[in-house]
Amino acid sequence: MMNEEQTSTPSTPVKKSRSWISWVALLAILIALGAWFQLVHQQKRSTKNYSQLQSSFHQTLTDTAQLSQTITDLQTQIANQSQQLQALQATFNRMQAANSGYETDIALQQVDHYLLQANLTLTFNHDIAGTIALLQAADQRLNAVSNSQVISLRQALASCIVKLQALPQLDYVGILTKINALSQQTATLPLFAITTKTQMFHNAPENTPSNNLALAKTTWQKTWAQTLETLKTLVVVRNRHEDITPLISDTQEQFLRQNLQLILQQASWAVLQHNQSIYTFSLTQASEWIQRYFADNNPANQGFQTNIQQLQQIDLEPKLPDIGALMNQLHTLQLEINKSRTLSLGKPVTKNLDEEDETDTSPTPDTKPAPNPSIQKPAIPAAPTKPKLSDSKGELV
What we know:
- The chain is mostly helical.
- The protein has helices spanning 2-8, 11-125, 128-143, 151-166, 172-185, 196-203, 211-215, 219-234, 250-273, 276-293, 299-312, 323-346, 353-358.
- 10% of the residues are buried.
- Helices cover 71% and strands 0% of the residues.
- It has a domain at 170-192 and 245-317.
């Protein structure tokens, strides 16, 4: 009995130690299962997060590719717009050049009109002051033309203006009024007068005997004296040191004065026509008629001759500059400017619109634009492998 009790007493601690070990093993198993479940849960969550990150990364790559495509399209559009802008700038330059050429043509046409008016004014009216004003207006209009080719024309204009300013300013109205006054004076100019001795004979009474007749005593002496007195009334003796001009009648005197007036009117017509030869001839003829038919010792006749001599010194045809040469130079200048403008417009500096259409490099709907080499797509990393779990023995599952 005692042996049985003794043998049964130590079995209780063994059972207790085994149960403790079992509980520890069970706890370890539970801890391992909890750790495993937690690891599995973390692995699932990591896998989910990785999937989301990978999806987000792929979306970013897609957005980057789209952005790259958009940037490429924008660069292509900018290049096309730059070409169009260059073409528009070239068109604007051509239009501006054409507009500038149009303004130059208008200015040169106005200068041509001024020169034509100046030529007519100088040729027909002989208005030097008006001609100078027209030439100065033409020079001011040329000053507004921005072209170096007009310098030679402006120099010729300046030379012509200086020559006109050096000419004497003739007072044509004063000349005509002076000739008209001389023409009116011809009606009162005295002709050659008879001598005092002849005047005494003509003014002596018919019944007044002379001294010789009063001193005669005999009949024959009285007869001789009467004969001499009769002869004295018939014969007039003049002592002159020049050609003798016969006395003229009243009708001839009237014709003489009218012809002299016509000669002076002819001189007035020559002034209006600026005809120097007829003007000089008329005044010379009038002076000769005054010397021949009118009294040379009369103050009125002497003043008339002095005025005629002053009029003869006037030059109605001074040497005038040739404005026609200026007009020819202007026409040559217009041809040269038009020729140079045609050459400049025919040589394009930039692309024309027609050339742009032929060499347009913009992408068509069927062709894709070449990718920009400066933008590179990032490499897609490989998907990470799932971590392998190990069992309690340390072996990989």
